[in-house]
Amino acid sequence: MKKVLSVAAVILAVALVAFLAYDGIANKETSTDFFSMNTYVTAKLVGADSDECAEQIRSLTEKLDTEILSRTSPSSYVFKLNSNGGGEVDGKIKEYLTVLLNVSQKSGGAFDFTLGGVSDLWNFGAEPSVPDETALKDALSHSGYQKIQLEETAVIYGDKKAVIDFGAAGKGIALDEIKSLLSGKKIKSAVVSVGGSVLLMGEDEFTVGIRNPSGNSGSYIAKLNIPEFCVSTSGSYEQQFEKDGEVFHHILNPETGYPANNGLLSVTVLSQSGILSDALSTACFVLGQEKGMALAKEFGCHAIFVTENKEIIAEKYAVDIIEITDDSYTLVTR
Ligand code: AMP
Ligand code: MG
To answer: In angstroms, rounded to a whole number, what is the distance separating the alpha carbons of residues 294 and 117?
Structure first.
């Protein structure tokens, strides 16, 4: 009898150790951060595959930028399309272009993915300055999403000098690609941010901050308590400079070529799609609060606007998910 009991105790102990080891592996946490797509990327992963996935997120993001989306890297597909004034497209790149064309059309051109020539003149990524008036007019005359035609297997540039730019949507595309990478792996939860776009994956509830437009990158004015989503923010504070007392930022009004100024400081968009959350946050910023909110709704997405008057404007549903943490701001629901 004694022998039987001690065998049972050993079996139990072995099972417990195996369970704890398994639990440890299943909840393994890995973090990584690196610079890509002209911005900081951070990933926090929980799950047995977290180490290998962190590595893969890095190579996927770098490849997506340098081989496909970058407007400035000569090895990228988009760079080649722009240099040749068009070319063959299929698969993923065609899917991305289809979404950007759709957002351009539905926003009435407030979002325009052909503004690359104008953005080049402002040069926000490097040494920004106010462009020469004549050069700006010339670059604007070669932009316009209507000039781009997407055919079965090709993209045709009606104006060979048009410059396609994924600057407003590339970070969201990265989130979509990372999401499909992780969904085939043993990952319980993931929070991945690529600049102002964040992927939330898993069954937990997540808390995401809305950044203080006039504070540093660690200061927030509100919290969103939400489930799995892609969350993108476009803010004038992200890239800006001052000249003769005037502030210029990187989100441009395609009608004028100058920064969009309509009383907004930032727009945050929630969607299950990364490319839509990113493209729409930029589109809503340019469109302004009323038209922007209507556009987000048309795409089945939620938008939250932060105004210069210190209002945080959102749809009624948002009352349940927004917590204001800076009481100089007021929540307004529409
Ligand atoms: P985001 O930070 O996602 O709002 O994207 C801003 C970037 O999008 C800029 O740095 C430009 O590369 C590009 N961009 C600026 N204005 C527009 C616009 N009206 N439509 C589409 N892309 C734009
Ligand atoms: Mg964007």
So the answer is: 29
Output the pLDDT for position 13.
58
Distance 113 CA to ligand 1 centre (A): 8
What is the distance between the alpha carbons of residues 232 and 169, in angstroms, rounded to a whole number?
A: 10
How would residue 3 be classed by pLDDT, with cut points 50, 70 and 90? low
Ligand nearest to the CA of 235: 1
CB burial class (10 A; 0-12, 13-18, 19+) of residue 50? buried
- Within the chain, residue ranges assigned H as helices are 2-26, 50-63, 77-84, 91-106, 116-122, 133-141, 170-183, 274-287, 289-298
Whether the Cβ atoms of residue 281 and residue 273 lie closer than 8 Å to each other = no
Residues 180 and 28 sit within 8 Å (Cβ to Cβ): no
Quick check: 214 and 249 in contact, CB under 8 A?
A: no
Residue 51 vs residues 58, 134, 176, 200, 247: alpha-carbon distances, Å? 11, 52, 20, 18, 43
Ligand 1: centre distance to CA 252 (Å) = 7
